[in-house]
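Forwarding the complex inputs:
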Amino acid sequence: MHQQTPIKQELVIRIRQLYKSFGENQVLRGIDLDVAREENVVVLGRSGSGKSVLIKIIAGLLKPDRGEIMVLGKDLQQLQPNELQELRLRLGFSFQNSALYDSMTVRENLEFPLIRNRRHLTKKQVDTEVEEVLGAVGLTQTINQMPAELSGGQRKRIGIARTLILRPQIMLYDEPTAGLDPTTSLEINNLIREVRKKYQTSAIVITHDLTCARNTGDRIAMLLDGQFVTQGSFEEVFKINDERIQSFYNYNFIQ
Amino acid sequence: MQKAEKKQRYVLSPGIDMFFVKIFDAWRFMLRFFTELLKPPFEWDEIVKQCYQVGYRSLGLISLTGFITGLVFTKQSRPSLSDFGAASWLPSLVAIAIIRALAPLVTSLICAGKVGSNIGAELGSMKVTEQVDAMEVSATNPYKFLVVSRVLATTIMIPVLTCYSAFIGLMGSFLDVHAHEKTSLTTFFENAFSKITFLDISATLVKAICYGFTIGIVSCYKGYHASQGTEGVGRAANASVVLSMFFIFVEEIVIVQITNYLRT
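Prediction (whole assembly, two chains):
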């Protein structure tokens, strides 16, 4: 396997020999991955290759069969439930379908994690925080709208804003451009880069969109058949003479 | 994807094993309610909101069904009692029927349909659209916010609705009795409550609390474990209603047996 060591050495995520199966389907087969501080790593792969499973394991939503996962210096598998909750305050997870709470307005969606995890904040401070993250994603005008009234791109942005409100150190993006038109996709790609710059976050971006991978990733990890076949810059990954990687590239190109 | 090397082993058969696993899972889900219930922080706003949804939003339907139940039961009983010259016993007969059996049963069956399906569909939809996961990754306890508040709301509000339904049912009965015998409201209620004991009222309240808890926990369990997209949401809503009704009838038999034993 071709692998490039992250440029900055302080690792925020360190995964070794990660295995996960569902029934008889072995989805992840010995994954190794490092993410350095303020580094954006893109995990590229076909649908069903286990990309989303990987970040759900990192977020503690799924348990691995075996392997070592260190997140911000904590061994995920040794954490007690309350310690996992603490760790989650430093992780942001942007879902593929945004996962906004349907019954709440945009303001309530953003307030929800804040008032439950920063109970000392006054109403005024909460309002300020909400307005600030909404400003960061450029959607202050939607504050009183319901999620059903928003476009796909707006929902993605609000989903990202909801994770940013807790000031996470690591962002996990699950298919951030899936189902969006090219222009909106570019806006989301720019937003991912801006988030890194403004909030000094590290990130794992799960995608099968090469434009998104090229625009957002410092490093690309190619996941095929449950294993990383290569890691490196965009150009390095697609220079490799592997039929599976080339067919993935050509398919995206034709698309 | 590769096939896992290890083959799954079963104790009895896949179906039977899975049945017991599901029962154990449901049991743990229910026990978790009691541990989470007592642990701060408490979601007071959500509890009040859910009480409003379960209670106030069901008032119209409960009023209608309660009134019709009392009225129809009186009309149906009148000919038989009149044959024996015992039409004056109508208020106490109707009160016994309504307070002991009809009010808790009709109220909880109506709520199993209205509230149970609502909770099952809402939580199921939140589950399949990853809203429950979103709560979890934002360091919020989704069980406490979604399940505890809803189960508490049904457990509190179904007894309140049962009392209300019993009152409305007796009013429906009074209208019919008054139309035929010109009985006054005071006389009607004096006759009605002459045969009602403390045990009757306590048993009714216990029943209503059990039914409320059942509707809440069953609907939340089915919604919380929904999968496979919109089809799964539909199945969760359906199963919430069917299973809640099934358990309500089972509990009815058990509580009636216990009450009869205490009465003798």
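Residues 12 and 33 of chain A are 11 Å apart (CA to CA).
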